[in-house]
Amino acid sequence: MSVIEINHPLIEHKMTILRSVDTDTKLFRENLNEIAKLMTYEATKNLKLETTEVTTPLMKTQAYVLQDKVALVPILRAGLGMVDGILDLIPTAKVGHIGVYRNEETLEPVYYYCKLPTDITSRKVILVDPMLATGGSAVYAIDYLKSQGVTDIIFMCLVAAPDGIAKLLNKHPDVPIYTAKIDQGLNDNGYIYPGLGDCGDRIFGTK
Ligand code: PRP
Ligand code: URA
Questions:
Q1: 193, 196, 204, best to mutate for ligand 2 pocket (most atoms within 8 Å of CB)
Q2: Ligand 2 within 6 A of 192 CB?
Q3: If you take atom 3 of ligand 1, which residue's CA is the nearest one?
Q4: Taking the domains of the chain in order of start, what are their residue ranges?
Q5: pLDDT tens digits for 39-74?
Q6: Neighbouring C-beta atoms of residue 198, cutoff 10 Å
Q7: 79 marked as binding residue
Q8: DSSP one-letter code for 206
């Protein structure tokens, strides 16, 4: 059961750009993907390796390749904003999609779509969504993945509220949470504060 807040000067700097109300869609997208890439370096530290042999121009030597196969699963829509950054580092990852949005009145998750790689149960799944607010969407997505037989999941987000962290740890203690920031809390509308606003709208320019 773990929550890892990834601290790095580059992430701090880029988070400030994301939080700013003055940041436009292009800059927002670029910085979100750059943070996702930096986080991936840390979040994949425990990937398993297998021993192999490589021939350098001078000699044969022992070397390593990844044993774990990875599947990346963004929660639509906002999770899409982190995919390219992660794929830059793990280009062989397969990508599934799960569509869950939050009912704006009840804040309950509403499921609408899922398409997963056929071999997902043999893969390590990185579930991504920039915002962990009440935790309803992430818990729903993990319930769903587990119902399909997935057993090895990590959750990666950008900003996490204490409520969402508590809910996720309670429902899925086996799923480590990697986040760039743990923020103060949720406002009356269920938005994270200080947060960065509606992440999906800021990525796609829909508001
Ligand atoms: C946002 C966000 C998460 C969810 C977090 O999605 O991307 O999926 O809210 O809130 P929760 O922890 O309280 O469930 P949203 O519902 O705005 O959908 P969108 O990505 O399609 O804009
Ligand atoms: N979803 C968002 O996009 N932002 C929040 O602050 C909470 C949920």
A1: 196
A2: yes
A3: 131
A4: 3-46+69-204
A5: 999 999 999 999 999 999 999 999 999 999 999 999
A6: 14
A7: no
A8: -
Ligand 1 centroid vs 67 CA: distance in angstroms?
A: 33
CATH number of 3-46+69-204: 3.40.50.2020
Q: Averaged over 17-41, what is the pLDDT?
A: 98
Instruction: Tell me if residue 198 is catalytic.
Output: yes
- Any catalytic annotation for residue 102? yes
Complex-level ipTM beyond the 0.95 threshold: yes
Residue 132 CB partners (closer than 8 Å, separation 6+): 138, 155, 157, 159, 160, 161, 164, 165, 168, 177, 179
* Cis-peptide into 194, omega within 30 deg: yes
75 Cα nearest atom in ligand 1 = 8
Q: Confirm whether residue 130 is marked as ligand binding.
A: yes
Q: Which residue has tokens 């929660």? A: 75
Length of the chain: 207
Alpha carbon distance 126, 71 (integer Å): 6
C-alpha torsion sign, points 174, 71, 47, 29: negative
